[in-house]
Amino acid sequence: MDTSESARLFREASRVMVGGVSSPVRSFSFVGGTPLFIARGEGANIWDADGNRYVDYVCSWGPLILGHCDREVVDAVIGEVRRGTSFGAPTVPELELARRICSSIPSVERVRFVNSGTEAAMSALRLARGYTSRAKFLKFDGCYHGHADPFLTRAGSGLATQDLPSSAGVPAEASAALTLPYNDEGALEEAFRDRGSELAAAIVEPVAGNMGVVLPEPGFLERLRKLCTEHGALLIFDEVITGFRVSPGGAQGLYGVRPDITCLGKVIGGGFPVGAYGGRAEVMRLVSPEGPVYQAGTLSGNPVAMAAGLATISKLDGAAYRRLEGASARLEEGIVEGADSAGVDVTVNRVGSMVGLFFGPGKVRDYSTAKASSHRAYPRFHKMMLEAGAYLPPSPFETIFLSTAHSDEDVDATVAAAGRAFKGAGD
Ligand code: HOZ
Question: Which residue in 249, 371, 399, 404 is a FRET match for 353, CA 20 to 30 A apart?
Fold first, then answer.
């Protein structure tokens, strides 16, 4: 496969952009080689700068639940652009998207739009601190809540990929985070018993998607909810990945646990930079201008981004979720069968169209088991899959995403390639 044009562009980019990329995991530092420059996308496919075609399982790291260039989304965006790209004033698409979010996400009565998941999480924590007048908060190892200072402790995503426990430039006092293992109810009980009265909030990815995919074990989210309530701490669900992805009501709709504040992003922006946080009216009332918790943004609620999100969410009906489930289950089964027949141990964790692939025999239920799985196998697997036309995340600490545009044929071709790659993995 000729990727010389991507390699040339990456050399150029490295002269003017840090690491040649705008976000660390894109650099292929974990899997080796140089990142592909993507020239265009359509449906489930993307083409690189050398003209190679791939089935895309990154889907822009989650937002593209309908695949690339969905007709209705493109039309909505073009229509909106023609009316003006930004006003810094309220618009109807913003109102419509807010209505849609409040009616779909069970715990959200009021919402505030921001420009990224990072902003959503950062603002949600500020709100929780303002509401409780407490500073400390709880987070879980391997969960990633964007790159604001307080969250960069034992975080997933790029920090996990680069094996960084934290980030330089973050003073210890900026975090005030207590971190616990995911899915550990005993540790939860103990932490709340000892420090519960100091906690403003607990923040969690209700399905973790930044240490690969790790599912909440039955009872974990429920116990967390109960302990937060008992100790007067707010529960923040970071549903930036899961919102509208795992069900119309997000993970809280799927598992029936209601947080006090929900962070959203990715799907609600339909491929544009959007984030949001929302919750009970009584909590959200504290946000400026209604209350004293300040937060603002020039491009927040941008009408083009709102139109893209609205068009995306409008297409997510029952049939769309059934289709996502069908294609994703097919991929899971095919990968497991292919690995079995090649004698390679893998663990696949999946909720709907979020798929996590770990090399190794053991169950993956938290950050330490995710890190313990055999990551040496992933770079080689990734390279072989790329050569066979499947674009997987360049890190095992990220999520494989499917879209409604992924056909059975796309999935079958990927499964066949995975079978060959598993066989070659031992060579
Ligand atoms: N925050 C994204 C992973 N969960 C990474 C986005 C990117 O690097 O583009």
Answer: 371
Residue list, ligand 1 pocket, CB within 6 Å: 23, 25-26, 61, 157, 210, 398
Mean pLDDT of the chain, nearest integer: 96
Residues noted as catalytic: 144, 238, 266
Percent of the chain residues topping a pLDDT of 70: 99
Phi then psi for residue 60, to 5 deg, are: 60, 30
pLDDT tens-digit profile of 5-26? Answer: 999 999 999 999 999 999 999 9
Ligand 1, atom 8: closest residue by C-alpha: 23
The whole-model pTM stands at 0.97
Q: Which of 365, 329, 359, 363 has its CA nearest to residue 343?
A: 359
DSSP character at residue 201 = E
For a substitution probing ligand 1, which of 18, 22, 25 has the most ligand atoms within 8 Å of its CB? 25
Where do the domains of the chain lie, and which CATH numbers do they carry?
4-69+317-425 (3.90.1150.10), 71-314 (3.40.640.10)
Ligand 1 nearest-atom number relative to CA 23: 8
Question: Which protein residue has the closest C-alpha to ligand 1 atom 3?
Answer: 157
